Amino acid sequence: MAEVEARNISISYGSFKALQELNLKISHGEFLVLLGPSGCGKSTLLNAVAGLQEISAGQIWISGRNVTWAEPKDRGIAMVFQSYALYPKMSVRENLSFGLRVSGMPKEEIARRVSRAAETLQLSAMLDRRPSELSGGQRQRVAIGRVLVRDAEVFLFDEPLSNLDAQLRVELRREIKRLHRTLRATSLYVTHDQVEALTLADRIAVMNKGKIEQIGSPAEIYERPSTRYVAAFIGSPAMNFLEGGIETVSGEPVFKWGDRSIPLQHYAFTDAGDQRSASFGIRPEHLVFGDRAAAQDFHGEFVIDMLEPMGSDTLAWCNAGSGQTIGLRAPSEMRLAEGDRIPIGISAKNASIFDAASGRRV
Ligand SMILES: Nc1ncnc2c1ncn2[C@@H]1O[C@H](COP(=O)(O)OP(=O)(O)OP(=O)(O)O)[C@@H](O)[C@H]1O
Ligand SMILES: [Mg+2]
User: Which atom of ligand 1 is closest in space to residue 207's alpha carbon?
Assistant: First the structure.
């Protein structure tokens, strides 16, 4: 079974702690995405699994073996890097087969693997071209192909799509997903792109400053973020936050900001719901407007400050009082205008509320 496990990994660069006692377990056949902003330690962790990065403390286990001190080539892994340096003077076929030829594999076996990888990645018609005769997406596919021809049990990807334009990213993202459906290789995939994480992952590990903040399925991470950091990182447009406090009115908890308040009877508190400063998070698609607004836990009128047309829908940024703004998605055919007053409803069960001091979900 090709499981990958990082046990209590710490990595320091001088006095800077890049990873702090990090634990992560990837199951056989799982596609796990490491997601986080630049500098949070994603590549450091991936490189530690690959054996390209010395670790200060902890262990790496792959397929039930402690590989902490094993050479990269003895770990049963194959890695796709962000900068997919292909050999410019070699054809696609030669690029794909280079590693296998060096290892002394018989010619027929090499030919068989190259043609299978080329077929999977739709490169069969381009095997005799040089990298300079390929598009960016085709080159990236060759880089992935070099990994496919190997006998790896574990695939590691470090932002393999980040050098591509938006449209190619979407295409190759789908191809990587299809590839994983076919091969079911245990995969660890690094990205700072939350859409890539949501679309590809079986589970997402959201990293912050050398630690994992939350790990879970895309739906869990999106719907029940455990910290404000995770909530703000996932989702586009981002979750709205109203800054205020939890208070008790007539024995029931409410969220108050300025002179407005939202009853919280229908909010699933994870703790006692005590009075305190808090952020009330609500995703743009959960703001209800028009006739249905009145049926929600809260409804009120908001003035539209700014509109951002997005084609199929429009983002309406509204003044929520006390200097705060909330954004909602409206169908473009609603023909909203800046300055309009619109009724907005909020249902507390769709909210994520975070303690202002700790940032943790309440
Ligand atoms: N060789 C090094 N010496 C000192 N600090 C380093 C070294 N390599 C990385 N770092 C620091 O460690 C932290 C984590 O780096 P890492 O490359 O893992 O980040 P990342 O999450 O992959 O970011 P990005 O999305 O930008 O690739 C960063 O703050 C970085 O500056
Ligand atoms: Mg990196």
Answer: 21
Helices and strands, number each (H, E), in the chain: 8, 20
Which residue has a Cα nearest atom 29 of ligand 1?
39
DSSP 29: T
DSSP track, 178-224: HHHHHH--EEEEEES-HHHHHHH-SEEEEEETTEEEEEE-HHHHHHS
Ligand 1 lining (C-beta closer than 6 Å): 13, 16, 18, 36, 38-44, 192
- Site to probe by mutation for ligand 1, drawn from 33, 34, 44 as the one with most ligand atoms within 8 Å of Cβ, is 44
Ligand 1, atom 2, lies closest to the CA of 13
Lowest-confidence segment of 135-144, 159-168, 218-227 by average pLDDT = 159-168
Query: Rounded to 5 degrees, what are φ and ψ at 349?
Result: -70, -20
pLDDT, greater one: 61 or 85: 61
CB of 182 closer than 8 Å to CB of 175:
no
Phi and psi at 32, nearest 5°, equal -105, 130
Options 3.40.50.300, 3.40.1190.20, 3.30.465.10, 3.40.630.30; CATH for 4-226 is: 3.40.50.300
- In the structure encoding, which two tokens stand for residue 81, read together? 């890097």
Q: Which percentage of the chain shows pLDDT scores above 90?
A: 77
Confidence label for 324 from pLDDT (cuts 50, 70 and 90): very high
Residue nearest to atom 26 of ligand 1 (CA): 38
CA of 205 from ligand 1 middle (Å) equals 17
Of all atoms in ligand 1, which is nearest to the CA of residue 14? 4
Fold of 240-355: OB fold (Dihydrolipoamide Acetyltransferase, E2P) (2.40.50)
